[in-house]
Specification:
Elements lengths: L15 E2 L5 E4 L6 E4 L5 E3 L8 E5 L6 E7 L8 E7 L7 E4 L2 E6 L5 E6 L6 E7 L6 E6 L2 E6 L5 E8 L2 E8 L5 E3 L7 E7 L5 E8 L4 E8 L5 E3 L6 E7 L5 E8 L3 E8 L6 E2 L6 E7 L5 E7 L9 E7 L4
Antiparallel strand pairs: 1-2, 2-3, 3-4, 5-6, 6-7, 7-8, 9-10, 10-11, 11-12, 13-14, 14-15, 15-16, 17-18, 18-19, 19-20, 21-22, 22-23, 23-24, 25-26, 26-27
Length: 316
Amino acid sequence: MQPTPLKHPFTRSAPKWSPDGSKLLVETGRQPTVVSKDLKEETVIGPTDKWVTKSDWSPDGSRISYAFRDVHPGQKEPHFAIYSCNPDGTDHKMLSATGWKGVWSPDGEKIAYHLVKKEAPFRLAVMDKDGSNETVLSTEPDMGDLSWSPDSNKILYEVWNPNEADIVRFDLTTGRKEPILGSPVHSDKTPRFSPDGKTLLFERYHPEGKRTEIRSLDTQTGENSSFLSLKQSNHDAAWSPDGEHVVFSAGSLDNGFDLYVADSTGKSITQLTDWPGYEHAPAWSPDGKSIAFYHYQKEAPPSERTSLQTVDFKPL
């Protein structure tokens, strides 16, 4: 029996830059907020009396999707539902009355999400950007996060059950579903395509050492190998917009996590941060010159433990 993959203990979701790089969509509390690049202006997204989560920018920057649990229009019992609104927090529209974890396709035409109903199995679904044409693609025992291929034709998602933990690829063109590594033998999660779609980075949990490693998969040959030579636990890999670099978090629960940048082959590693606590969930700005991330300090008061930070990046 393979163990369920472990999340980085301090990562709920990474901050997300607006397509023009002027703002950030952040989740550090009960509501997502849109903040300016200088981290001063702030706009709350979604209802302020609910726990709102799983927010995402549309690729053109015109809408923000999010989810929260409530009794929504036409319902008698509470459900998670996906809504969207303008970046200034106006014009809220319900897209799916029974969905969450919505993620926009790179072309901005569709949203992949979990279709969730009481006492029903998990289902991978997709809908048009306006909430129409909801279509169930697959039924699974349990599902984790979703991501898209750069061409918007494939959806990758984590499948968990008591006997395996694997990353599955669903091809919207052919309707074919398959594990990216064949028969699962490890606990793998968090797939991230390179911008050109040729390489996939993912995380593998090793229970014997209680650590996670970032691995690399060649999408043409199917060969996979360790991406980094570090012995530390490493998480949260994110590709730079030009595909030349990867930022990630590495360290341990005892000594903290810091941010590092490697080239696209996992070599030439440079340390970006060395702060007390845990730096994690990095995200590149669209121009590749800044990296936003969350900083966690467990000794701080609860309301101040997680903060949004940014650091500049200049290639050597």
